[in-house]
């Protein structure tokens, strides 16, 4: 890039900063106005981006410090002329101002608080001599602030400057050196091919003698409390409306701010979670599908919500009782009772099931497990909100007897004949083919008969119909009445009675 091209970017940048100064700093002194004769209001995206650039290199200089301004000789001479011709700027210099009469003199202006040096940063020896003529570098605490300046230098010269600056004042016990470096990827610059990423810029400075290097792209800086508070971000919206967040993010991803210190603080580096550059928001992308829990979004202060949320089941530590197969079989039989009861924390039971354990959990009534049937709506109200029957099954809900949560592992169960009609909803896993995965189901029992059910307590809903229970008693009496007869005669007459019962079952004679 030629000097003329560099000057164009410099003039454009100052005009953009003047636009920001007019809008965003109404209650502070305006200095850019002396360098921009005809101010132009930039677009909101440019204003917000340049406000962020200014904020990222906002440096507070303590009273008594010397500010040394270094730039190309032709630019610095132009700047000196504006300062000397502007009373508001010249008055800031105070007394004892020395102005060089020779334009070839690198020290163009010198005062107790401010100096102007006309130097090409590529000429390190001339730069060192000029700095030594106004201060003792070896005894000074030096803070370097470089905005874009080394971006337009050739890579070798920029790297040499970085290495040279890292050695200034490094023996001083309190010396700290900071270099804030912005790299603008959408302009022709000479180091982007060799240092294209934030990580490569960090290593660039470390390899050249800087003990500690922190770097952010400008979008990270925008979102970081290191640079500004949430209230400060939201206050910008009072200046001008802004809704170009995707473009601002894209803008910010193309700049970086770097803080380097010659001495380490002893604090370990923090890894940035950044795996890939930002995609262009105006390019067509393929359809994608997401399954899971999506949280986040844009906060009122214009930062992305990247917080990670974790949750733990409320009943994870509660103790529960589960059925566990005592035999190495997938069939759990409640008649032969080939299982045992195990008591453990709910979380551990689930972990055993997910590891292939042959366990089964059945919910009971939370309020009164010995007298009342289970009811999902009462026992697990938060789950019940996610489980609703369709309107076509309204009859089921109207005649509800119980709703049971069943959790099982690699096991099939035979419990008993289902007396009541029921609806079985498999929520997770598979009932017919047990696997090592978790099976979660809801079983809803309802009364589909007008009468005939067993009377008395029936918590599990597994008591047979009243007629059957009474019939079994009568059968026992009948069998007893034939007890004194020979076996063949007893069988003959009991078989005849059984045939009469079968005939009665086939008609409406009862």
Automatic annotation (TrEMBL):
Lineage, top-rank taxon, reads Eukaryota
GO term, biological process aspect, one: tRNA methylation
* Any Pfam family hit: Cupin_8
Q: Which residues form the Cupin-like domain?
A: 312-431
* Any GO MF annotation of the entry: tRNA methyltransferase activity
Check the record and name the InterPro entries matching this protein.
Cupin_8 (IPR041667), SAM-dependent_MTases_sf (IPR029063)
Protein name stated in the entry: Cupin-like domain-containing protein
Kindly list the organism's lineage: Eukaryota, Fungi, Dikarya, Ascomycota, Pezizomycotina
């Amino acid at each position: 890039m030629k000097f003329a091209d560099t000057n164009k970017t410099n003039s454009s940048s100052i005009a953009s900063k003047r636009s920001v100064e007019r809008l965003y700093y109404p209650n502070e002194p305006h200095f850019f106005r002396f360098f921009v004769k005809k101010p132009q209001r930039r677009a909101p995206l440019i204003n917000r981006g340049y406000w962020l650039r200014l904020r990222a290199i906002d440096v507070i200089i303590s009273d008594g410090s010397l500010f040394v301004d270094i730039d190309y000789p032709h630019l610095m001479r132009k700047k000196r002329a504006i300062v000397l011709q502007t009373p508001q700027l010249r008055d800031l210099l105070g007394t004892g101002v020395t102005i060089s009469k020779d334009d070839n003199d690198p020290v163009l202006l010198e005062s107790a608080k401010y100096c102007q040096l006309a130097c090409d940063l590529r000429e390190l020896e001339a730069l060192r001599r000029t700095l030594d003529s106004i201060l003792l570098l070896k005894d000074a605490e030096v803070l370097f602030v470089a905005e874009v300046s080394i971006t337009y230098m050739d890579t070798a010269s920029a790297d040499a400057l970085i290495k040279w600056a890292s050695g200034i004042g490094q023996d001083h016990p309190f010396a700290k050196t900071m270099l804030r470096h912005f790299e603008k990827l959408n302009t022709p610059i000479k180091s982007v091919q060799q240092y294209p990423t934030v990580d490569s810029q960090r290593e660039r400075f470390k390899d050249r003698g800087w003990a500690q290097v922190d770097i952010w792209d400008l979008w990270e800086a925008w979102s970081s409390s290191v640079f500004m508070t949430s209230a400060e971000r939201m206050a910008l919206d009072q200046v001008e409306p802004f809704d170009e967040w995707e473009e601002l993010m894209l803008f910010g991803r193309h700049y970086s701010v770097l803080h380097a210190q010659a001495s380490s603080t002893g604090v370990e580096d923090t890894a940035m979670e950044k795996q890939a550059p930002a995609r262009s928001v105006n390019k067509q992308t393929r359809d994608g599908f997401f399954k899971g829990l999506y949280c986040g979004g844009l906060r009122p202060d214009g930062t992305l919500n990247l917080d990670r949320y974790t949750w733990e089941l409320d009943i994870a530590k509660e103790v529960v009782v589960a059925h566990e197969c005592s035999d190495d079989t997938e069939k759990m039989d409640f008649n032969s009772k080939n299982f045992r009861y195990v008591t453990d924390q709910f979380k551990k039971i689930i972990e055993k099931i997910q590891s292939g354990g042959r366990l089964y959990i059945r919910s009971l009534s939370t309020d009164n497990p010995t007298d009342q049937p289970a009811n999902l709506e009462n026992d697990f109200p938060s789950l019940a909100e996610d489980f609703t029957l369709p309107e076509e099954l309204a009859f089921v809900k109207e005649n509800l007897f119980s709703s049971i949560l069943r959790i099982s592992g690699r096991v099939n169960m035979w419990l008993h004949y289902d007396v009541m009609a029921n609806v079985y909803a498999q929520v997770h896993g598979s009932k017919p083919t047990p696997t090592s995965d978790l099976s979660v189901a809801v079983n809803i029992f309802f009364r589909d008969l007008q009468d005939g059910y067993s009377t008395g307590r029936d918590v599990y809903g597994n008591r047979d119909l009243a007629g059957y229970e009474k019939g079994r008693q009568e059968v026992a009496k009948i069998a007893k009445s034939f007890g004194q007869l020979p076996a063949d005669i007893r069988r003959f007459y009991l078989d005849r009675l059984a045939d009469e019962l079968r005939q009665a079952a086939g008609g409406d004679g009862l």
